[in-house]
Amino acid sequence: TWSISMVLLFTACDEKKDTRVTADIVTNSQSADGVSNLPVSMIRFEEDTFRFGEVLEGEKVSHAYRFTNIGNNDLVIANASGSCGCTVPEWPKEPIKPGKSGVINVVFDSERRAGKAEKSITIYANTEPSRHVLFLKGTVKPKSN
Asked: What contacts 44, CB < 8 A, 6 or more positions away?
């Protein structure tokens, strides 16, 4: 019932036709009778955790999480979000064909983040499960005053 209400809310507010796949479709891929109504694919990341070691507070850490569509259908990444505003992902907006690869670029800004850093990046795609979590870990050394 909740998922039907959310779909109605999203479609009722949409005045112009948008053909992009949105996170609400991907995260609720099972219809009421339990049959998927969106072609499901499969994603494989080369790594799910990047350990950046130590950086000085204020430095920006960048990393490219590489992935491959190992499914039989186009892979669509509907959304990617960092666990806080200091971790910003960029992902391909176009479908990734079966057998093809892509990259999710992430930048972590360590300004005012001294100490142990453990950030997550949540990816929503037309996969089962639809949610994948990547991690960025390391230590931010405080600036000398």
From this structure: 67, 68, 70
Cα 45 to the center of its chain, rounded Å: 12
* Cα(50)–Cα(15) distance, integer angstroms: 41
DSSP state of 142: P
Residue closest to 38 by CA, chosen among 95, 101, 91, 102: 95
22: phi then psi, degrees, rounded to nearest 5: -110, 160
DSSP state of 12: H
CB-side neighbour CA atoms (13 Å) of 135: 7
For residue range 107-145, list pLDDT tens digits in order.
999 999 999 999 999 999 999 999 999 999 999 999 886
DSSP sequence for 96-115: BPTT-EEEEEEEEE-TT--E
- Model confidence at 39, pLDDT cuts 50, 70, 90, reads confident
